[in-house]
Here is the input.
Amino acid sequence: MLFGSKLSSLANVIKHADSYQEYYEACSLYDELSGANEWKSIEKSNDYDYNLIKKRVERIKLAKGNNDAQGLMSILHEGIHGNLGNIANPQLRKYAKVGTKHLIEEFLTEVSGALEFIYNANENDVSFYRKLSFFEETSHAFGKSCLMLSGGAGLGFFHAGVVKSLIEFDLLPEVISGASAGSIIAAIVGTRSNRELKTVLTAEVIYNNFHQWSSWKGFGKNGLMDSTHLENTLIELFDLMTFEEAYQRTGRHITITVSPVNLHQESRLLNSKTSPNAIITQAVRASCAIPYVFSPVSLRAKTHTGDVVPYIPNQKFADGSLTADLPFTRLARLYGLNHSIVSQTNPLVTPFISSTKGTNQSIRAKTIRHSIDLAKRNGIYLFDVLESFTDSNSIKLGIHKIRSILSQQYVGNINIIPKRSVADYQYLLTNPSLQSIDKLIMAAEKATWPEIDLIEQSTKISKAFDKYLKLLKTRENRLLNHEYELKLVSGGKK
Here is the structure.
């Protein structure tokens, strides 16, 4: 009874912790008392291929011991990927509050160490350009993580707390997407340095910027709400900065999703690759244009002379979450992603998503998941049939949007989801108070804490790849500039 009481007391501390340090210490003690630490130390498990991982660790250690950089490159080339041996299996998360199998942690450490070993290898054994080729090829094959910020109207300020926590632990991915309310936070992140973000992503600053974002305009207009204050705020935040200029400033690849108001147009992913000259202000305003709430928006771009011109003329765009709340597949194609972190606050889906670690494998849970999936598929089929029976483009467009909402995927590999109460939904379309924003940010930080160790594990190898590839690229640029200067000097002498 005393033992159970102690665990119950620790669970209460974990639930009500005011800092990550307090949370982590309570989780660590809980794992020690519950027997989870013993589970971590046992390599064998049906939830992952422990033999494969163990052998890979042994081979890496042997190659390093023999000072065999070429051998390490071969080992990593032949099979390194984000879920080798199913080490990312969600079932592995249900046994402990923090951490995972020591063998998995050792594997991640050894792979990261192997990358450092290869980077530092004597270039008589591995030439500079051989290293560069290895890191370019293997990094692309392995992939990287992204952060996707969902729609959520007034609840979207939750994302600020998620980003704040990821920055604190140096875990913020370089690829970030935002839809609807998520586009505001994504754009802020993509146009500010980490130091600036620590100042900007506070309840006070967010409140000062957005405390009047919602203003009633009335029926019979393009939208029920007046977007003037929101537009002025976005101009103050982003001015005429383009996606390319934002990338040059921060090195972050931000994507803003927008939905067309035309039946024969597809949703757009606006970023420095697809639309480098598009202006961020209009992209965010369009992504926030909830149908019938805010009027749709025409996009703008900036020419090389600085003139502002229409982007995709004669087309208007609206709420990005309608058709591309979490556009992982398309982002993966653009940026070589293998993993996603999702901050999900979309009120249409959060009541149906569980943030519990692991996946319930009981017959009842499987039956419920299958029933939900079946209902979703039947709903999509129904809207397909309805669309075929109408000739009205406006009705078809409405049906198409509803179908799109049903058919989307709203979760990723790691999901940070707020605990919702009915009272929270009052913030959807109303102006926030300083207290409500502070509450959302604090709730987001607490929702992020249980995922910190998993995010660290999941991004450890890709961060090592990025680190050494950037160093090699920087050196390559210096070498190329030096060669160019030598050619100029040589040419001048002739």
